[in-house]
């Protein structure tokens, strides 16, 4: 999954058109359109480039049940997808199936863009991964189907660890920090034993959730920011300690170019998406030489004594409320993401959308680390105004203030809570 999920915020322009027909369609629960003659499926280029055979298999399965059905596909890149989707959702030519990044689902669900679906009609829905299930659920209703997942793992340089006398990946947080101390002492203060960009809120919030905190809490149908709670502050203070001890790079940066920096050999450890180490080791990024042979992934241990809870990225599939073929769209989604589809996605080095298929991967050395890491996950608050929080980069700015020392942890968290509370309940 060599792309970054983008929070969906540009849906205002389609509201009037959707509202005009949204209520009746949603009561339908996706049952209409079973006799439609055509189906339009929008997926990202990931499917087009990496598993077109799985797309074809789903097509063939549905056409076999509905002879004469015409299925067409459109593929788009992540950067321009939402603008294209917003434009078409404001017309009567909406596609029948759309792929969404899991952080994109909420804003569209809040605005009534997607049809409600019945989870019981989809394979393994009772075992959907927590982070993906949360992304398709809003106000107690389900508006999408998890497609595949991607967790976060620790990646470090075996050769650098060995230089410092460390021969095995750490299993506990105490071992991790002790190993990093040895590496930092060996390499000097111009080297980052752990390259951790301050503004990387995915990593920082893992510390918050590991400590029992959260970004926000729901009470009586309303959300309230929770970064100033004792638990959240504990996690943020430990995150600050990590930045101070091991991160000797630019503390105003985010994680966007982390694989490139890691490929330059300026750090021993990163904590990011499972694909980042591999991207750092590509010919264009590897300035170390044979980096692929020198890196190793492991499950990041948390200060709590358990595996660090990770943000679970991934994709979902949804049926636009304006689709005229909702029943067929649901059938296609189940053919694509169901039991057989998940086998194909796993074979393409993706994590499955459910715990049942995830379990065997934990015992396979090739997949054990990402599969185990994905078991413990967190997700963003499913609040109507969450998209505005992301747009304003409240968490990133808080973390930069903490990392650079511009604000104390307590003041930065207090200011972030105030900013979050202004918009988190706003539709």
Automatic annotation (TrEMBL):
Residues 1-22 form the signal peptide. Belongs to the bacterial solute-binding protein 1 family. It comes from Streptomyces noboritoensis. Gene3D superfamilies: Periplasmic binding protein-like II (3.40.190.10). This is Extracellular solute-binding protein. The keyword Signal applies. Keywords: Signal, Transport.
């Amino acid at each position: 999954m060599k792309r970054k999920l983008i929070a969906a915020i540009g849906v205002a322009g389609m509201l009037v058109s959707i509202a005009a027909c949204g209520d009746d369609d949603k009561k339908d629960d996706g049952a209409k359109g079973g006799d439609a003659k055509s189906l339009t499926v929008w997926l990202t280029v990931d499917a087009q480039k990496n598993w077109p055979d799985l797309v074809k298999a789903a097509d063939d399965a549905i056409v076999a049940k509905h002879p004469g059905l015409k299925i067409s596909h459109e593929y788009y890149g992540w950067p321009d997808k939402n603008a294209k989707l917003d434009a078409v959702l404001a017309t009567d030519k909406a596609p029948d199936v759309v792929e969404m990044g899991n952080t994109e689902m909420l804003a569209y669900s809040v605005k009534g863009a997607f049809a409600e679906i019945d989870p019981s009609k989809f394979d393994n829905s009772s075992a959907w991964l927590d982070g993906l299930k949360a992304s398709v659920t809003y106000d107690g209703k389900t508006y999408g189907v998890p497609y595949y997942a991607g967790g976060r793992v620790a990646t470090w340089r075996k050769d650098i660890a060995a230089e410092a006398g460390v021969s095995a990946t750490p299993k506990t947080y105490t071992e991790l920090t002790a190993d990093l101390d040895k590496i930092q002492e060996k390499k000097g203060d111009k080297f980052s034993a752990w390259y951790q960009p301050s503004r990387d809120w995915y990593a920082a919030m893992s510390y918050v959730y590991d400590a029992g905190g959260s970004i926000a809490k729901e009470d009586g149908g309303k959300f309230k920011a929770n970064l100033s709670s004792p638990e959240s502050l504990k996690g943020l203070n430990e995150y600050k300690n990590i930045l101070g001890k091991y991160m000797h790079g630019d503390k105003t940066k985010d994680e966007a170019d982390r694989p490139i920096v890691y490929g330059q050999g300026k750090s021993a450890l990163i904590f990011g998406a499972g694909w980042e180490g591999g991207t750092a080791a590509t010919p264009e990024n590897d300035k170390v030489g044979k980096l692929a042979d020198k890196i190793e992934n492991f499950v990041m241990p948390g200060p709590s004594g358990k595996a660090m809870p990770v943000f679970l990225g991934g994709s979902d599939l949804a049926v636009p409320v304006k689709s005229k073929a909702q029943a067929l769209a649901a059938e296609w989604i189940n053919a694509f993401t169901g039991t057989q589809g998940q086998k194909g996605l796993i074979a393409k080095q993706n994590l499955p959308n459910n715990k049942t298929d995830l379990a065997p991967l934990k015992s396979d050395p090739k997949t054990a680390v990402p599969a185990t890491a994905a078991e413990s996950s967190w997700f963003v608050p499913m609040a109507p105004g969450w998209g505005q929080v992301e747009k304003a980069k409240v968490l990133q700015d808080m973390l930069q203030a903490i990392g650079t020392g511009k604000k104390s942890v307590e003041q930065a968290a207090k200011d972030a809570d105030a900013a979050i509370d202004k918009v988190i309940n706003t539709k």
